[in-house]
Amino acid sequence: MSMRIVSIWVGGAALLAVSAATAALLLPSCEVALPFGSLRLGSCPGTILQDPLAEDRVASAALRAEIRSLEARLAGLDCPAPVAAPLPAPEPLPEPEPEPDPPPVLDKDMIDKADLGDLQGCWALDSPYRTQNRATGEITEFSEWTVCFDAGGNGTETMQGSNGIRCEGPVSGSFVPGQALVIEEAANLPCSNDMEILQRRVTCRVDGAERASCSSFQPESGSSSEVIMRRTQEAP
Asked: How far apart are CA 78 and CA 97, in angstroms?
């Protein structure tokens, strides 16, 4: 009977050995514990699981420490506020040029004083004026007739006709003290169409409306016409 027990035990031991060997083949890196006793076949190295956020927490702590250090350094700095440079004083505005005095009009005082300097400036036609060609009978309307004097009474006259002609030549001015202003042409007035206006002598007096009422007389033809002249602001 003892031999049978031994055989069973030995048989059981053989079965256990085969099971352990099979487990060892299936799990070569891990230990196998026998169901009884303290015998262990093979071993498994211990595995240490790592925290995936550990490095981030370390980096965050380092950054917080650096921020605290920078804040402390900034708190100790003395930064005075910059002083703005003073703005330059604005340049003074240029003084406005005074308005020129209006030229004196032809009045009794001017005629009585008879100062040629009072003539300086320009006089312009302020009424219709026309001429007639003695050869053809053609009539030309003049819308512009301007006479400009310097301080010595010497000047130039220009006339612009409705048919496009332009007439220009020298004139001179003088006073008959207490009576009139006299404007005289040196010769016939040449025009751009190769025609001439006969020499004239224009005598201006002050009428009841305080205008320069002028009589234009042509000695060669013996004819005369009445015109109104006015002062302008134009320079001679």
From this structure: 56
